[in-house]
Inverse folding.
């Protein structure tokens, strides 16, 4: 059975609860700064790869600003380089970004009562880094107000999202000047490992990750990376199935507990 995250020390919880929205915003910014260590080379690599694929700087920047999702951007550019059909490019990018739907669902209990314009802004700024930081912060401090949660999310976003666009531009405009032996591609796996590892706290999380990884490896031979179209839904389905079984087990245990046996 899955276990809830441990409660934070009382002092840490009190500090989080008394922060003003402005302080929560700055706290989100400070906590997001370590992500720059992998976000900068990740964005730089995308700028270089997009430029090498034949995209103009304006097209590359439009890609980063409008899509704002590194994994799907890399997927789309790679498929475009392989001359894959347009529909396959779009479908693969959407499949990679299906995780955003799960992110949104898990954030709804914490941010769902924010004003509509804020929810629209959150949806645009929702990336792996802002989600990973925010959901862990909210779970550690469940009594935060909506204003404190929103401010924390926006603080993290201010560090991550403009940096992605700016460094993408640097990579697209100066890609030829970057030495070929620089191992920029290390940032891609490191980024996702740094975000995913702390979040694998339940059986459902582990099941989704394991099934998605194994399916992606098994289907790696399919043309134009189309195996992702199958691996991503399989991972989500596995996670949902395990979560459903865990909830049923909890319900049965509650029914046969002290209240149910009275």
């Amino acid at each position: 059975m899955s276990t809830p995250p441990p409660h934070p020390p009382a002092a840490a919880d009190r500090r989080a609860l008394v922060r003003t929205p402005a302080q929560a915003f700055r706290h989100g910014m400070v906590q997001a700064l370590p992500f720059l260590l992998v976000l900068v080379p990740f964005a730089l690599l995308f700028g270089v790869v997009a430029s090498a694929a034949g995209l103009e700087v304006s097209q590359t920047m439009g890609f980063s600003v409008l899509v704002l999702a590194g994994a799907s951007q890399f997927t789309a550019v790679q498929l475009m380089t392989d001359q894959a059909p347009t529909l396959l490019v779009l479908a693969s990018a959407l499949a990679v970004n299906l995780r955003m739907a799960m992110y949104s669902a898990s954030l709804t209990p914490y941010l769902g009562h924010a004003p509509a314009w804020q929810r629209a802004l959150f949806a645009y700024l929702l990336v792996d880094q802002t989600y990973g930081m925010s959901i862990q912060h909210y779970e550690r401090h469940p009594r935060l107000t909506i204003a404190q949660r929103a401010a924390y999310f926006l603080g993290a976003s201010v560090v991550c999202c403009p940096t992605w666009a700016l460094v993408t531009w640097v990579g697209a405009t100066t890609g030829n000047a970057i030495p070929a032996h620089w191992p920029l591609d290390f940032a891609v796996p490191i980024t996702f490992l740094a975000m995913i590892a702390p979040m694998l706290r339940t059986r459902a999380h582990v099941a989704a990750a394991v099934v998605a990884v194994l399916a992606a490896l098994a289907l790696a031979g399919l043309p134009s990376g189309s195996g992702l179209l199958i691996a991503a839904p399989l991972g989500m389905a596995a996670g949902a199935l395990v979560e459903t079984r865990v909830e049923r087990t909890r319900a049965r245990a509650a029914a046969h507990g002290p209240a149910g046996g009275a």
